[in-house]
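Deliverable D2.4 — example input (structure tokens):
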């Protein structure tokens, strides 16, 4: 029995009569037209509903698809991955079957990698936050192994709850996965995903979130390790007064590919979003990709939205692709905007630090540290921030010379 939930839009009769838009005899021309907007992408939980990835698709054109074949087209291990969860009052952890009603509420796949994971997983790991006092849980995965595998995680914040959930990824891995985040009415949840994989690990992840009435989600990505990391969060602000913040910090070394495609979907009145991703690149072949999509639907009156991406280039031979996109379907908004910038060190900053007796090497470290930690400092939990700052320090010790 298929679980496909494919969404396809039939062309209107009027549309096929327009000049230059008639159906041709060589196939279903109308359905072959490329997707023009972010919200029109087909969705399905069945991998068979997605064609083989060639690398020419808009969603894949920056990715090293030749290295992803096992995860896109191979047989995936859908058994439980090794996971540990720190104990805390107001935090529950359990495994649920793939047909559980709590799966699929936040979103479903929009690309072949996510659909492959959805088709293959056997059980989902459910983490529930129920405490009305701030509580923190660490969900750790280490050494998933070199065999291709699929995973599925659901994080749910009960109405009026307060929580911070940290997803820590280390060791070797070849994994494609889906992470669902459900934020109940009035809840405030922060989800932090830290990628400190081994140098040759491959991690493909789609994160989906739905945010309740007057609720708030802060989604933070810190990508430091792994040969290929492609993590795409989609936050659906589908209840009035919902607030979404998507923050990211990443550091790409030689030969490393770090990719983040962020989608902020305003689908209710008086919603607010902020997107800030900051990255640093050093070493031959270091490649980062950031694509930011913001959609303000017709019913999302009173929306307040802004997205930005900043990249700091530390050496020759790197590449940073940065593409902000903004779709607005109503004129009745508070404000919306986007920005993107990629550049080298500010010579004035380096000169100032060197004039204070700091070596050029240490000055460069200080600039990069301040650049990235501006994002990490917004987590709001001291122990978590210290842990991530230490990870950045370790990365700088190896990478900035």
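Example output (designed residues):
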């Amino acid at each position: 029995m298929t679980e496909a939930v494919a969404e396809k839009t039939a062309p209107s009769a009027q549309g096929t009569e327009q000049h230059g838009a008639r159906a041709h005899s060589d196939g279903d021309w109308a359905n072959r037209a490329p997707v023009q907007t972010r919200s029109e992408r087909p969705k399905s939980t069945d991998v068979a509903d997605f064609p083989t990835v060639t690398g020419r698709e808009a969603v894949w054109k920056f990715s090293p698809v030749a290295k992803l074949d096992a995860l896109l087209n191979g047989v995936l291990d859908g058994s439980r991955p090794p996971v540990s969860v720190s104990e805390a009052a107001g935090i529950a952890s359990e495994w649920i079957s793939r047909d559980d009603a709590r799966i699929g509420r936040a979103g479903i796949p929009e690309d072949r990698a996510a659909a492959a994971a959805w088709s293959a997983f056997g059980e989902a790991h459910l983490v529930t936050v129920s405490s009305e006092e701030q509580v923190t849980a660490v969900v750790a995965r280490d050494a998933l192994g070199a065999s291709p595998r699929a995973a599925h995680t659901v994080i749910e914040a009960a109405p009026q709850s307060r929580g911070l959930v940290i997803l820590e990824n280390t060791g070797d891995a070849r994994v494609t996965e889906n992470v669902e985040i459900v934020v109940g009415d009035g809840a405030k949840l922060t989800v932090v995903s830290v990628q400190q994989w081994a140098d040759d690990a491959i991690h493909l992840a789609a994160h989906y979130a739905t945010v309740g009435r007057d609720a708030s989600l802060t989604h933070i990505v810190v990508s430091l390790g792994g040969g290929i990391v492609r993590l795409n969060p989609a936050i659906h602000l589908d209840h009035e007064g919902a607030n979404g913040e998507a923050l990211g910090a990443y550091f790409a070394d030689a030969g490393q590919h770090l990719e983040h495609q962020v989608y902020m979907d305003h689908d209710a009145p008086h919603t607010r979003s902020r997107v800030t991703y900051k990255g640093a690149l050093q070493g031959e072949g270091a490649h980062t990709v950031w694509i930011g999509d913001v959609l303000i639907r017709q019913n999302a009156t009173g929306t307040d939205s802004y997205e930005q991406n900043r990249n700091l280039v530390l050496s020759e031979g790197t590449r940073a692709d940065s593409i902000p996109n903004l779709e607005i379907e109503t004129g009745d908004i508070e404000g919306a905007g986007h920005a993107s910038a990629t550049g080298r060190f500010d010579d004035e900053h380096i000169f100032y630090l060197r004039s204070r007796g700091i070596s050029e090497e240490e000055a460069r470290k200080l600039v990069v540290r301040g650049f990235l930690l501006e994002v990490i400092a917004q987590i709001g939990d001291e122990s978590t921030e210290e842990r991530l700052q230490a990870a950045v320090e370790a990365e700088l010790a190896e990478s900035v010379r």
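DSSP finds seven helices and 18 strands in the chain.
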